[in-house]
Every structure is written in structure tokens, then in C-alpha cells.
Amino acid sequence: MPIGIIGPSLFIGACVGGIMGLLGQIVVPDIASDYTLYIVIGMAAAMGAILNAPLAAILAVIELTQSVTVAMPALLAIVAATLTNTGVFRQHSAHQTVLKQLQRLVPNDPLNQLLHRTDVSSSMEISVVKIPVLLQHSATQPLLMATPTWCLVERDSEPLYLISGAELAQWLTDNPGEVEAQDQATDLTEASIRRWTISEVPIQATLRQTLDSMRSNTAEAACIYGRNASGKRVLEGIVTRETIEKFSLSGLS
């Protein structure tokens, strides 16, 4: 809901509790409490069941009523409502249901939880440059003088694949005849350099989402993109499967 979950859950619980309180006063007026008590208990039961947060619901009731005398009947209603919702109807909390619909279900195992709460920016390699697939001779000297970790090969501003900067520098050194001609460009597709398949991931992604993107695209690395002040897409860095695996091992050790 655009207005949130807690407010509507309290309203629904208040309505149901108020109806039950009025029915109680009509059916058994001698033993029924004031219907406002049932309103408060209904609010607590609905909130606890919808959010699957019994402790938060009982604390909310105590804060709303400024009294602990309502805690015991409210707690009994909260426990009954939560067990009915999860045990009988097999329903998850509202937050888990929304995350599942968005295909962002929070994992339960420690490894995936670690990847899920870690931003991709914490593990990406920022030493990366874009180079055209037809590399001009004038562009080789900067690559040899300050070799980047990664080079993203592009054709008409469209990314093709990723290559290691060190391997490219070594290939340029070993094949001077390929790049000495000033009047023609070197076609990097003919270079015997390992090509890394890539996928594209936004800078806001987590390591879990980055790994899922690489798996769905059968990629070995991910190009991390952000936006500058003018809204133009900017290449921020590179993350590989190996980087994520090393982070996982170091984080669980």
C-alpha cells in the first residue's frame, strides 16, 4: 500500500476488535469488558499477524495505551493470531511476501545473507578504462605507461567484452608490428587475449544481485554503472566471480 502497512493493519484490527467487543456486550453483557479494550487487542493481533512481529505489536499496544495492564490479554491475542496466520494459513509476513513478489527474497543461509547486505561498490575494481575495438596507435602508449587492471572493449559505444589490462599491455609489447602503423588501427578481436563475458549491474546493487545477474547472463564479470550529475551513465568499476568468492571466504572465516 502507498500509505504503508502498519497503519492499515492497526485500522483493520481496530475494526474487527470493535465489532467483537460490541457483539460481546450484546451476547454476554455481564462478563464482557468495555469494547475499547477489544479495539486495542484487535489492533495488536492484526499488527502481529500481518508483520509476523509479536514483540513489536505488544510494545506498540503498551505505547498506545500507556498501560501494562492490557499487555497480557493483548499478548494472548497476538500469539493466537500469529500462530493461526503462520500455522493454519501458511502465510508469511507482509514484508517477506512483498520481497518474494519483487524476486528479492532474503536468503536464510549465512553466506547469502552476507552477500545480500554487502554493496557491490565495496568489492569492485575501479581501475578500468574503455577502449575501442579498433585501437589507434596513439592510444597504446597511455595503456603501456599506466596499465589499468581492466579494459572494456567497445564497438560504437556498446560494450563487447572485458580483457585484462596487463594481458593487453603484454600483447602490445610482444606484437609491436601490429600497432606501429600510424595510418591504421589494431583490431583487438584478432588479439590472442582472454575475453571475459560481462553483464551490466547498477551501482546500487548488492553482491548477491550482482552474482545473480552474472549467472542469468552466463557472464564471468559485471560492469558496475552509475549516474553522474547530468544523468549520464558512467562506468564505475568491475566485479568478477572470483572477487565475490574471495569476499565470501574472507567474510565467513
Structure overview:
The chain is α/β, with parallel strands linked by helices and 253 residues long. The chain folds into 2 domains: 95 residues, no CATH class; 137 residues, CBS-domain, CATH 3.10.580.10. 48% of the residues lie in helices and 17% in strands. The protein contains 10 helices and 8 strands. A 3-stranded mixed beta sheet has the order 1-3-4. A 3-stranded mixed beta sheet has the order 6-7-8. A two-stranded antiparallel sheet has the order 2-5. The longest helix is centred in the first third of the chain and has 22 residues. The chain starts with 5 loop residues before the first helix and ends with a helix. The model has no long low-confidence stretch (mean pLDDT 88).
The residue ranges in which pLDDT falls below 50 over 5 or more consecutive positions are: none
CATH class of the largest domain: Alpha Beta
Structural class: alpha/beta
The percent of residues in helical segments reads 40-55%
Q: Report the CATH topology name of the largest domain.
A: CBS-domain
- Note the beta-strand portion: 15-25%
Which architecture of the largest domain does the CATH hierarchy give at level 2?
A: Roll
**N- to C-terminal separation?**
41 Å
The Cα radius of gyration reads 30 Å
Mean pLDDT: 88
Total domain modules: 2
Order of SSEs, N→C?
Answer: HHHHHHEEHEEHEEHEEH
CATH superfamily of the largest domain: CBS-domain
* Tally of separate helices: 10
Identify the overall geometry. Answer: rod-shaped
Number of strands: 8
Strand order of the largest sheet: 1-3-4
